[in-house]
Amino acid sequence: MKIAFKKMDEDEFKLFAKDSIKSSAEKLKGIRGVSDDEALQEAERQFCSILPQGKSTPNHCLYSLIDTSSKKKIGHLWYGTSKVGQSLQAYLYDIVIIKECQRKGYGFQALSLMEEEAKKMGVQRINLHVLGQNETAARLYRRLGYQVSVMNLFKKLAR
Hints:
Structural class: alpha+beta
Number of helices: 4
Shape: globular
């Protein structure tokens, strides 16, 4: 079992954008406690501000993840790069492995492949955000050597 990156084509990107905005809206509802409409509008705004030129936005890598044995798409990965001071850094915006392919090492492989690609570009640091309740992803990131840099906490207040 081995994976490869395949640059998203226009149809894949449209489906990815729709799914990504929907997923972000769900997270925003949980994090910020906003309505469905507010969450969807904010998710669309954020997505379009990060990728104003869609899949052609400079310094962004949008990939379908392909199992090289079966040739099936098993997920996607999106990261971008930017200069921070003198350092070229990457930010992992999204990685999704489809449900039936989870817990089979695909996520580990995809992140390792991303790290190899980033090193070749001169990236010195990769940043990412993981929701507190996503312990499975946090465990994977820790296994790969990622460390906590910031921790946001919240408390809901009774009305």
